[in-house]
Amino acid sequence: MKSYTVSLIPSEEKFEKTCKMIEDRYPNAEKSKLLHDVDDTKIQIYMLPEGQIKVYNDFEVYALYVDSDVSLEESIDYLFESKNMQ
């Protein structure tokens, strides 16, 4: 599993954009119910034949990051290069 840091600060807007990017790039991914913790952390899990993609808007770690069994280098690069995170 690889980890990708999207932002060093939790952000609802960037969390939603990251989830949208995954949904656009992996339309066959099965989206699970959004997990919402008491500290306001949100976790969205996507299931693919190759494994899981988990997007965390984490207030305990204080970061927005993705853990993935699937290589996301091109997708994460696209997210930043396209200025979708600004």
Task: Summarize it.
With 86 residues, this protein is α+β, with helices and mostly antiparallel strands.
Keywords:
globular; alpha+beta; six-stranded antiparallel β-sheet; 86 residues; 27% helix; 2 helices; 6 strands
Overview of the molecule:
With 86 residues, the chain is of the alpha+beta class. The chain has one domain (2-81). Helices cover 27% and strands 36% of the residues. The protein is built from two helices and six strands, in the order βαβββββα. The chain has helices at 12-25, 73-81, and strands spanning 2-7, 30-31, 35-36, 42-48, 51-58, 63-68. Strands 1, 2, 3, 4, 5 and 6 form a six-stranded antiparallel sheet that branches. β3 (35-36) and β4 form a beta hairpin. It is globular, with a radius of gyration of 12 Å. 20% of the residues are buried.
Number of domains: 1
Number of strands: 6
Helical coverage, percent range? 25-40%
Class by alpha and beta content? alpha+beta
Rounded mean pLDDT is 90
- What portion of the residues fall into strands of 2 or more residues? 35-45%
Tell me the Rg in angstroms: 12 Å
Order of helices and strands: EHEEEEEH
Molecular shape: globular
Supply the number of helical segments.
Answer: 2
Q: Span from first to last CA?
A: 27 Å
List unreliable stretches of 5+ residues. none
Main sheet properties: 6 strands, antiparallel
Quaternary state of the chains: single chain
